[in-house]
Design brief:
Layout: H1 2-18, H2 22-32, H3 38-44, H4 54-90, H5 109-123, E1 127-128, E2 134-136, H6 137-140, E3 166-168, H7 174-183, E4 188-197, E5 209-219, H8 224-239, E6 245-252, E7 255-264, E8 281-290, H9 292-297, E9 306-312, H10 314-322, H11 335-338
Helix pairs in contact: 1-4, 5-10
The chain binds zinc ion.
Zinc ion binds at residues 265, 267-268, 272-273, 275-276, 280.
């Protein structure tokens, strides 16, 4: 009997250590400590022993029972911990992984170019002044020396609204009138950036909506030399210190004299290439001395004041700077284009 108990103890301890999970552990409990378990059966058999052997066998059986129960609880606790640890590891979030960066947007290339232009003119003491995009015929045309029926109106194909005399501005020049009325009677220098609208066919060089930056300087003794100096400084700060400009006579109703300014080609430096169509020059803006009628419409006496104005397209400036061939990229919202300006 004692040998039998000893064997139960040895085998059961080995099996207990081999129990790999809680299910196996339960099987073990049933087979040794359960109602029909080996140890229980052995205890029941005690009564069949001779009287003198019973105390020793009973004591040993109880010791084994206690030892096995204790071992069972320890093993159960160890397996529970292991199961919990495994669960935590499998379902865990690894806090050491780098986070996903949020997708940040960036400024539109036109806006970026506008800001570069602001910087250049701010260095020369220009204010940035905003003015309305929906204009009246009076300010968009008449105040700028373009009375109804004036043939030069053909240069600005216009989006008219259903309200008579109200239109989408075709250029930023009506801002000249607003600026003069705001600053009158002081001398001033401003740039007037903003969107303009033309009822025109969309091509690689023209869009029906585009940005323009108008510049206006009004003061005493302002001459064409000031105009040339300011624009040359602009070209050099924007495109490099070696840039040169040339001025060609042109026509705008609101300036007299008027000119187109060309810059020597940034690619070939004037030798002639595909970009400059083998002329060596790139047209960058229109300009001129403010027409006396426009000065008067703004409230300034042309005998006392003079001024110059210019207008340029930031998209065109951006196209020249970055070798962009088609203006339609700017507003077609193709991310492959826009993301190159991130
Ligand atoms: Zn060239």
């Amino acid at each position: 009997m004692l040998q039998e108990l000893e064997q139960i103890r040895t085998v059961s301890v080995q099996e207990l250590e081999a129990a790999a999970d809680l299910d196996q552990l339960e099987e073990w409990r049933v087979s040794y400590l359960g109602k029909k378990g080996a140890l229980t059966q052995a205890l029941r058999g005690l009564g069949k022993l001779p009287r003198e052997e019973r105390p020793a066998a009973g004591q040993m059986a109880n010791q084994i029972k206690l030892a096995l129960e204790q071992a069972f609880e320890e093993r159960q606790e160890a397996l529970r911990r292991a199961a919990l640890a495994a669960e935590l590891t499998e379902g865990a979030i690894d806090v050491h992984l780098p986070g996903r960066a949020p997708a940040l947007g960036h400024l539109h290339p036109s806006t970026q170019t506008l800001r570069e232009i602001y910087d250049v003119f701010a260095q020369m003491g220009f204010y940035v002044l905003r003015s309305r995009e929906v204009e009246d015929d009076h300010t968009n045309f008449q105040m700028l020396n373009l009375p109804p029926g004036h043939p030069a109106r053909d240069m600005w194909s216009t989006f008219y609204t259903t309200r008579p005399g109200v239109l989408l501005r075709t250029h930023t020049s009506p801002g000249q009138i607003h600026a003069m009325r705001e600053f009158h009677p002081e001398p001033f220098r401003v740039i007037l950036p903003g969107k303009c609208y033309r009822y025109e066919q969309v091509t690689t060089r023209s869009e029906h909506m585009f940005y323009q930056v108008e510049g206006l300087v009004i003061g005493h003794n302002i001459t064409m030399a000031d105009l040339k100096g300011v624009l040359l400084q602009f070209a050099r700060l924007m495109f490099g210190p070696e840039r040169r400009l040339r001025f060609r006579p042109s026509y705008f109703p609101f300036t007299e004299p008027s000119a187109e300014a060309d810059m020597d080609c940034i690619l070939c430096g004037g030798k002639g290439c595909q970009l400059c169509k083998y002329t060596g020059w790139l047209e960058i803006l229109g300009c001129g001395m403010v027409h006396p009628n426009v000065l008067r419409n703004g409230g300034y006496d042309p005998d006392e004041f003079s001024g110059f104005a210019f207008g340029m397209g930031p998209e065109r400036i951006c196209m020249l700077k970055h070798g962009i061939r088609d203006i339609r990229y700017f507003f077609s919202n193709d991310l492959r284009f826009l993301e190159q300006f991130a």
